[in-house]
Amino acid sequence: MAENKQVIFKGYIDRSPTETDMELRINKVELKVPKGSGAFLVKNLYLSCDPYMRGRMRDFHGSYLPPFVPGQALEGFGVSKVVDSDNPNFKPDDLVSGITGWEEYSLIQKPLQLRKILQHDIPLSYYLGLLGMPGFTAYAGFYEVCSPKKGEYVFVSAASGAVGQLVGQFAKLLGCYVVGSAGSSQKVDLLKNKLRFDEAFNYKEESDLDAALKRYFPQGIDIYFDNVGGDMLDAALVNMRIHGRIAVCGMVSLDSLSKPKGIFNLSNLIMKRIRMQGFLQSDYLHLYPQFLEYIVSNYKQGKIVYIEDMNEGLESAPAALAGLFSGKNVGKKVVRIVHE
Amino acid sequence: MAENKQVIFKGYIDRSPTETDMELRINKVELKVPKGSGAFLVKNLYLSCDPYMRGRMRDFHGSYLPPFVPGQALEGFGVSKVVDSDNPNFKPDDLVSGITGWEEYSLIQKPLQLRKILQHDIPLSYYLGLLGMPGFTAYAGFYEVCSPKKGEYVFVSAASGAVGQLVGQFAKLLGCYVVGSAGSSQKVDLLKNKLRFDEAFNYKEESDLDAALKRYFPQGIDIYFDNVGGDMLDAALVNMRIHGRIAVCGMVSLDSLSKPKGIFNLSNLIMKRIRMQGFLQSDYLHLYPQFLEYIVSNYKQGKIVYIEDMNEGLESAPAALAGLFSGKNVGKKVVRIVHE
């Protein structure tokens, strides 16, 4: 038996989470897996903070993922090391990534939720971002949903985030003109100087988002990769070009599902024959191998970079998650639980 | 020279038109076309009242059609007979359909706006509906935008209108389950008993549109063909199934572009991976020959019916157009200018 520190989900909310919606608890864990269970036990090394997790904090059972269980540890993407296994596909010391618990040790009873890490010359935490769900979201969303063409005008919101920073780089690799929006001058600087966006702006400094988009896209937007919804989506709708495409990836600005903000400019969909499409990366998993090849190749050639924002210690995880919704993170938010 | 009664556009509005936004005027017209002009003169037989015409009454130049010119006659789709011609492709007594003036005689200076009517065993006025822009809108919207499959659950709003009544019949021909909404019990009756919808309801009698849709689609909606926008679109979003499609054809509920109603449930686009697409029939004109063949064949076999709502006399045209926006029309609204 060992101690197992956990981040517990306290109860349902219908707003963005704060640190106090979670609490730390010390539990016990059996370090041996019961024989005949087919399960395996992992030690969690890195946990991923992702905006979609807010959806699992709501008392709403109609979504693609069930809500968290109040009183139990949160779940999310993680990178972990196998400690003990009753499953022939996983051996002690194997490194894995996938859905795990927000705790030091997790008993994995659904082995299909994790895959083994085979590529060992890329930082392990990148399996939560560049090579993980956010990276694959950017890949599927940009290439499969946006139908991009060389030379097109691409706008990305939350552009320095886990997904946005890659969408912009993919668009640049394809030969598009790319502008990103973000919420601080530090992020704008990263977008322009490190992530190779053509332009970037701080939306908090713009009193008129429509005017801001007209300034950066006098000829209009072909592709809007939307991570935020709300006012930015409304402004983008007005600035779309004929036959434009909007990939609806996230609505991080939408603080409450029960009192959402209205979108007012959808009549542009008709006038400009716009395709607006919501998507989830999980619908495109057949493309994961080609994604991996594309990313690893471009990363190793230095054609793609990835910015992480790393917290230290499970204790810092609640604040790290809550910070996503006020834009505190600069790049992909990851929590390191233990140095290996 | 002859007298030429005209319906004059009085001035820009940003709301749905009323009868008094137009006025009748008697003008003069030369019944001979100037030599060397390439133009031709038509006598207008039928005029079409279509919701999109509201868009041309706004002082907004960014749309796919320019605004009407205050002080001049309105324009719209019509069926006309050639009176005199300086164009080798059009001879006196030819019947034509396309864009003409809201007046007794029109000098056509853009011959490409009209095509000759070749099929003479179908009522002439049907070239404004079943075989015209609304029919082709229904065809392109349903088959090209909705990606329909046999057995799917299809919802159509403004379902007895010029477009909706055909979308429902196309969906039934393909083997879908089809429910329509409309604004009177007379229309609901037509939908169920004449247009072969599986079910229909009067949205004005529903205090909760979400509950109404749940009643008719307990398993959810695969395809929503949206002619109205607004509250019905919001309710449909909540009731869409995973991988559902929304064809955004019109937003007749949207009374004002400058003060549109908000749409609040777009987060469903992500959760359910919905594709929402605006479209215009004019992007699909390469399909017009196959549309014509499909429609004529099905119509002659009695597999498609078409409901018209005919007004008599150019004098009645302003009220006929205004009536579209309060749902006064039952079926496709047409104005007969002259009995031939």
Automatic annotation (TrEMBL), chains A, B:
Keywords recorded for this protein, A-Z: Oxidoreductase
GO molecular-function term, one example from the UniProt record: oxidoreductase activity, acting on the CH-CH group of donors, NAD or NADP as acceptor
Domain Oxidoreductase N-terminal residue range list: 5-109
Superkingdom of source: Eukaryota
Taxon lineage: Eukaryota, Viridiplantae, Streptophyta, Embryophyta, Tracheophyta
Pfam families documented for this protein: ADH_N_2, ADH_zinc_N
CDD domains linked to this entry: double_bond_reductase_like
The name this protein goes by in its record: 2-alkenal reductase (NADP(+)-dependent)
Domain Alcohol dehydrogenase-like C-terminal residue range list: 162-293
Gene3D superfamilies (UniProt xref): Medium-chain alcohol dehydrogenases, catalytic domain (3.90.180.10), NAD(P)-binding Rossmann-like Domain (3.40.50.720)
Signal peptide extent: none
Organism: Tripterygium wilfordii (Thunder God vine)
